Prior knowledge:
heterodimer; A: alpha+beta; Alpha-Beta Plaits; 6 strands; B: Alpha-Beta Plaits; 5 helices; globular
Amino acid sequence: MEVKNHLRPNKAQMEGFFEGDTETEITMLNLLKFKEKAEYEDGRETDLTGREAYSIYGKEVIEHLKKVGGKSVITGKVSRLMLGEVEDLWDSIALARYPSRKAMVEMMMDSDYQESEKHRSAGLEGQLNIEFQEGSL
Amino acid sequence: MRKYILLAVILLTGIAFFFFGVNTNNNEYKVFKNAVMPTPVQIAGFALGDDVPFLAVNLIKFKEKAEYADGRETTLTGEQAYAIYADEVLEHLSKVGAEPILGGGVSRLILGEVEELWDVVAVVRYPNRKAMYQMATSDEYMESEKHRTAGLAGQLNIEVAEGELDFE
């Protein structure tokens, strides 16, 4: 099987935020792969690593999450794969809970968030973000 | 002679880059494989590392229909067979001091692409690697595990050292 980490959602993924149940609580599992060295889109000089740049975003996003009623549940470093095979293992994971799809969109559209997001895209090579509904095992 | 070898290397490298590209963008496909059983190297990993708690992040894909290794007849779906395991494993987890943290049905992928999306995410916290190994090799667990392999098409299980949000 193949997997592609991305930085931004595609059109269909963006539209998905407005489809189906947009009011129920969701949980997001982020599988993160960092760049070796941070690269800012505005071309500014930096000697940060990708992980360091993303960490700036990681700290700031707590506040943005809070504003829309979301919260960070789990974060951590990937140490190894116990089952399965991946060509290029992810570096870290982050689990966040949002009150709804709508709330997540609201956060992403916020100009303060977009300011923090510059550090995210500077540090992140790509990721998977898996939406799931807790409890529906 | 050496000059020609060097030239050949440069040419071949150029051709390789032309066909395969340089691994710098995030649009490149990475290959992954779900599995039901760990490899010998993965099993050996349980004996290594520190005696510290960790999270097991399971990305699970069910079979359409359950298939038991002993060939017994069944009308269960893969998900139903796995649910028997999921129910029984709670007891096995608590015996070694592990606990399920959260889990649920996958609704969609909002970033990235996978050829075939997983059905369920489940996160479990273990006190250490030894505890997980101890559970996985106990007779009682192996009895429950028959339902797991009956229902599971394959999975990734990612070991995570829980940490701060600063990712350092």
